[in-house]
C-alpha cells in the first residue's frame, strides 16, 4: 500500500497551505449554517407541547454536547496517530482541540442548567446526562492541565495522548455507570434530553445546527493549529518566509 | 413564523429569560473561541515583526 | 565498509525550544572508547540518553548493528549497560541487594560474584550496609561494581568519575581501557581528561561542534 | 521473566518495610477522614448509616490517591526507572509487580481496616462482607488507574494536585459501583450484580492499565 499521502498529511507545510485554502470556505459555511439554524430554531420551529418555548435551548445544548463528546474521541484518535506514527500534526491537533472541547462542554452544561430551571424547577439536577457532561469537563481540565504542566512539548503531547486514550476507554464505563446510578437513585419521570419522536420541523433545524457546530469547530481548530505550526516550525525556511510576508502585510 | 408579534418572540411564552440567556452566553463563548486565536496570532506576528526589525538593525 | 556496532545518523536533539546539536553522525566499532566532552548544557547527557534509546531524537536515528534502535529494543537491552547520573541505587537497600536486583534485570548472578565485584571496587565489608549510610563516592562504587559482573559489550556511562577518589579514578580508567582492549565499546561523558587511553580512543567535543 | 516479577515483588516489599511509617500514613489518613464526618454532620446513627457507603468509599479513594503520589517518585529520582526501561524485560510487567506490591501493603491494609471503621459508622454486621469484597475488588482498580496518573506526573515538581485532577474523574465508576453495592446491602437487596461489575472492571484494569503506566513512565523518563 502506498503511504505517501499519509506522510504528506503529516507535513506541516502541506497542512498550512491546504488549511489556508479551506479556511474561508469553512468559516462561511459555519456562519451560514449556525445563523440559519439559530433563526430557524428560535423563530420558526414549533414549540414543544410540554415544555413550551424553553425547549428551543435544545438547538444549542445538543450540538454542543455532541461536539464535546466527539472532540474527546478525536483527542484520543489524534493521540493514537501521534504515538504510533509519530505524526507531529496529530500532537498539535490534540493540544489545540482540548480547550475547544472544554468550552463546548461548558456550553452544554450551562444550557443544560438553564434549561433545567423551567423544566425541573432547579438550576442543577443530578441528571445522568448533565453529570456525565460535568465529568467530561473534568477530563478536559485534566488534559489541559497536564499539557500545561509539562514543559517539554514533545513529552507534553505524548503524555496528553496517553491520558486521552485512557480517558476514552473510560468514557463508556463512566457513562453507563452514571446512567445506572441515576436510575437507581431517582427514577426519572420525565427526561428533557430524550426525545423519542421529534417532528421533522423540530429536528431539521437541529441537524443544521449540529453540522454548523462541527464546521465552527473545524474553523477554530484550524486557526489554532496554523498558529501553533508557525510557532513550532519557526526554524523552517518556509515558515520564515511566511512570517516575513505576513509581517510585511501587517505593518 | 411561529410567533404572532415581535414582543411574543422576545417573551418566548414566559421562558424568554432562560432561552435568551442560554443563547446569549453560548454566542459569547463561540465568539470568544474565534477572537482568542485571532488575537494570539496577531500578538505572535507583532512579536515576530519586532524580532525581525531587531535582527535587521543589527 | 562493515556495519558498525552503534551508529548515529544525522542526529538532532532539541530541548525546550533550544537546538542542542543537529546533523550529528557517529560510527562506533567494537574496541573503541568515545569520550563526549563539552560545556554544561551542550547536550552530553542527552546524547547518551539518545544512544540508550531512553530519549527519542528530534531528527535522525540511532542504529544498532545496522538496524534501527526502536525496532530491536530487546537486542539493545542485551548488549547495553547504562549507568546514568543516578545509578539506580536505593538508599534503603544494602549494596548486595541493590546489585542483585540490578543484575537480575539483565542476567541473574550469584552472591559470590557480587561479593567479588564489591571487593574489586574497594567495598569489602560494606556488603550488608544500607546504601544511604555510605558516602557519595562509595555509593557511586556500588553502581560501578556492575562493570565487574559479567557485563555486556556496550557501556554507556554518564559522568562515571564523579565523587571517586584518585585511586578509584585510576582503577576505573584501567578497567574501562581493559574492556575496550577486549573488544568492548565504551561511550562516556566526563570533564576529567583520561590518562589511561585505549588504542581506539576518540573524543567528541559538543561545544566545538556548535561553535 | 516471571522470576524478575517475583524478585521485584520481594524488593518492593523489602523497601516498604524498611520505611514502615510511609505504609501507615494512608491508613491513618483513611481513619481520620472517616472520623471527621460524625464530628461534622452529628452523631445520629441513622444519618451516619445512610451516608456511610459513600463515606467509606470516598475516604478510601482519597487515601489511595494520597499514597500514589510518591509511587514512582523515588524510582524516578534515583535512576531505577531508567534501568527498568533499558532492561530486556517488558516494562508493563515490571510496573504490574510494582503496583501489586504497593496495593498489597496499602490497598489491602485499607480493606482490612475498613470493617472496623464501618462498624463505627453504624453499618450492620451483615453488610460487612459486602464492604470487604467491594473494597477488595475496587482498590486494585484505584491503585492501577492512579498509577497511570502517577507515571505521567512523576517528572513534575508538584504533581500531587495534578494527579488528583487527572485521576479522580476516572475513579467515578468504581465509586458508583462500590458504594452502590454497599447501599444495596444496606437496603437488604442483593449486591452480587454490583460486585460482578466491579470484578470485571478489575480484570479490565489489570490487563490494560500496565501498558498505559509503562507508556507514561517511558514518556516521563524520556523527558
UniProtKB/TrEMBL annotation, chain A:
The keyword Transmembrane applies. It comes from Pseudomonas songnenensis. Required for the export of heme to the periplasm for the biogenesis of c-type cytochromes. The chain crosses the membrane at residues 22-45, 57-85, 97-116, 128-147, 159-178, 202-223. Belongs to the CcmC/CycZ/HelC family. It is found in: Cell inner membrane; Membrane. The keyword Cell inner membrane applies. Pfam families: Cytochrom_C_asm. This is Heme exporter protein C. It is a multi-pass membrane protein. Residues 13-185 form the Cytochrome c assembly protein domain. Its main location: membrane. Keywords: Cell inner membrane, Cell membrane, Cytochrome c-type biogenesis, Membrane, Transmembrane, Transmembrane helix, Transport. InterPro entries: Cyt_c_assembly (IPR002541), Cyt_c_biogenesis_CcmC (IPR003557), Cyt_c_biogenesis_CcsA/CcmC (IPR045062).
TrEMBL record, chain B:
GO terms for cellular component: plasma membrane. It is found in: Cell inner membrane. The keyword Manganese does not apply. GO terms for biological process: cytochrome c biosynthetic process; cytochrome complex assembly; heme transport. Belongs to the CcmD/CycX/HelD family. Its main location: membrane. The chain crosses the membrane at residues 20-40. The gene is ccmD. Required for the export of heme to the periplasm for the biogenesis of c-type cytochromes. It is a single-pass membrane protein. It comes from the Bacteria. The keyword Transmembrane helix applies. Keywords: Cell inner membrane, Cell membrane, Cytochrome c-type biogenesis, Membrane, Transmembrane, Transmembrane helix, Transport. This is Heme exporter protein D. It holds the Pfam family CcmD.
Automatic annotation (TrEMBL), chain C:
The keyword Transport applies. GO terms for biological process: cytochrome complex assembly. Pfam families: ABC_tran. It comes from the Bacteria. Keywords: ATP-binding, Cytochrome c-type biogenesis, Membrane, Nucleotide-binding, Translocase, Transport. One of its GO terms (molecular function) is ATP binding. It comes from Pseudomonas songnenensis. NCBIfam families: ccmA, PRK13538.1. This is Cytochrome c biogenesis heme-transporting ATPase CcmA. Residues 6-207 form the ABC transporter domain.
From TrEMBL, chain D:
Belongs to the CcmB/CycW/HelB family. GO terms for cellular component: plasma membrane. GO terms for molecular function: heme transmembrane transporter activity. The gene is ccmB. InterPro entries: Cyt_c_biogenesis_CcmB (IPR003544), Cyt_c_CcmB_bac (IPR026031). It is a multi-pass membrane protein. PANTHER family: CYTOCHROME C BIOGENESIS B-RELATED, HEME EXPORTER PROTEIN B. This is Heme exporter protein B. The chain crosses the membrane at residues 21-42, 54-72, 93-118, 130-154, 161-182, 194-217. Its main location: membrane. One of its GO terms (biological process) is cytochrome c biosynthetic process. The lineage of its organism: Bacteria, Pseudomonadati, Pseudomonadota, Gammaproteobacteria, Pseudomonadales.
